[in-house]
Amino acid sequence: MMSFLSSFKVVALCYGVFMFGVFLSSEAQLDPSFYNKTCPNVHSIVREVINNVSKTDPRMPASLLRLHFHDCFVQGCDGSLLLNNTATIVSEQQARPNNNSIRGLDVVNQIKTAVENACPGIVSCADILALAAEISSVLDQGPDWKVQLGRRDSLTANITLAQNLPGPSLTLDQLKARFTAQGLNTTDLVALSGAHTFGRARCSLFVGRLYNFSNTGSPDPSLNSSYLQTLRSLCPNGGPGTTVANLDLTTPDTFDKNYYSNLQVHKGLLQSDQELFSTSGADTIDIVNKFSSDQNAFFEAFKASMIKMGNIGVLTGSQGEIRKQCNFINSQSAQLGLYNVASKESSSEDGMVSSI
Questions:
Q1: Among residues 100, 101, 104, 23, which one has the least CA distance to residue 58?
Q2: Which of 92, 190, 212, 248 is positioned for an S-S bond with 162, CB 3.0–4.6 A?
Q3: The pTM is what?
Q4: At how many degrees (to 10) do helices 60-72 and 295-309 cross?
Q5: CA distances (Å), origin 39, targets 43, 73, 117, 146
Q6: Residue 131 and residue 43 in contact, taking contact as beta carbons nearer than 8 Å
Q7: Residues 146-192: pLDDT tens digits?
Q8: Which one of the listed residues 68, 70, 196, 266 is annotated catalytic?
Q9: Backbone dihedral angles phi then psi of residue 318, each to the nearest 5 degrees
Q10: C-alpha–C-alpha distance, residues 246 and 197, integer Å
């Protein structure tokens, strides 16, 4: 028996060392200088497209940042979100948290076209999403960070996992569980939720808080009363639910700390936002207070959490592929003769369902 246990421990230890080595090797292959020789202008190319689009659609930076989040939380940061339906792939875009929600897929295609024109077959769609997220933050006065690069694109999508993206009505414990499953901690949860400092959300995502919170027949007691009336005028009970509201009612198109200040006065738009501050005794309250009083602390935490999130489940080396067109794996692009086909684009209105 002791011999068996000793052998089991050795096997377990070796497996642990192996898995740790795999994790380190995938991280080691991500490097901000990955394209320095093969596509040195990739950052400026991505930035130019986003900058031009945001002049006519100021909400686009927020939408692009959230595409990266929606991608990373489903089988890792591998561009799987971008894949369209085919005979062999069921698109994640159809999942409840993505359908009529995600925006910016057409802009990703514009970026990919521009990058392919300069550096054909070099830059992955997964890396384009990561770069677009950082550039979007900077364009709206948020922090910049050194984007780790070298991801490759998946050959598959996973609509089942996409159904489990963090939603707007989750409790704090549920949010923590979703983030923990991705290797992210409580500070990451609060910091990444700060991405709701810009962008919009449809009435349908929070109308329950206004009239029938948790089937009580009453509004969410954590909502500021004057804010409640403002939201009710915007989102009537039984209305279509398609009107959008600012996630940050004070500076809706600026990346700053006001999201957290709003939570302190009970003016978080989504339940998942307000849970961070209004859950009694929660360890998130001190973090919210810190970020509300110190924007630099928020920015530093956000940068660290974005880099950490960007390392989830990455494909590197010979894994996956570098797609020629972000909506199809290369074998299907060749079969269909498609190289610039748009993904199914949701409504032009933000309908963000995820917790960031």
A1: 104
A2: 92
A3: 0.88
A4: 50
A5: 9, 27, 11, 16
A6: yes
A7: 999 999 999 999 999 999 999 999 999 999 999 999 999 999 999 99
A8: 70
A9: -100, 5
A10: 9
**Model confidence at 7, in pLDDT bands (50, 70, 90)?**
very low
Return left, alpha or beta for 18; rule: phi > 0 is left, psi -120 to 50 is alpha, else beta.
alpha
Quote the pLDDT of residue 338: 53
Contact 219, 228 (CB under 8 A): yes
Average pLDDT across the chain, whole number: 89
> Which 8-state DSSP code applies to residue 265?
T
Q: Which amino acid would we find at residue 63?
A: S
- Residue with the two structure tokens 């998942």: 272
State the amino acid at position 333 in one-letter form. Answer: S
Backbone angles phi, psi at 342, to 5 degrees: -70, 145
Task: Find how far residue 247's CA is from the centre of its chain.
Answer: 15
Contact 200, 245 (CB under 8 A): yes
Element (H, E) at 211: helix 207-211
Specify whether the CB–CB gap between 329 and 323 falls below 8 A: yes
Residue 213 token pair: 């919170």
pLDDT of residue 29: 80
Q: How far apart are CA 311 and CA 30, in angstroms?
A: 8
Encode pLDDT of 255-301 as tens digits: 999 999 999 999 999 999 999 999 999 999 999 999 999 999 999 99
Q: Which two tokens stand for residue 145?
A: 């960070």
The H or E element containing residue 171 is none
The pLDDT of residue 16 is 45
Give φ, ψ of 69 to 5 degrees: -60, -50
Q: Which residues contact 184 (CB under 8 A, 6 or more apart)?
A: 192, 305, 308, 309
Coil, strand, or helix at residue 294?
coil
* 3-class SS of residue 328: strand
70 given a catalytic annotation: yes
Q: How far is CA 224 from the centre of its chain?
A: 28
pLDDT at 322: 98
Which is more confident, 101 or 269?
A: 269
Q: State pLDDT tens for residues 117-145.
A: 999 999 999 999 999 999 999 999 999 99
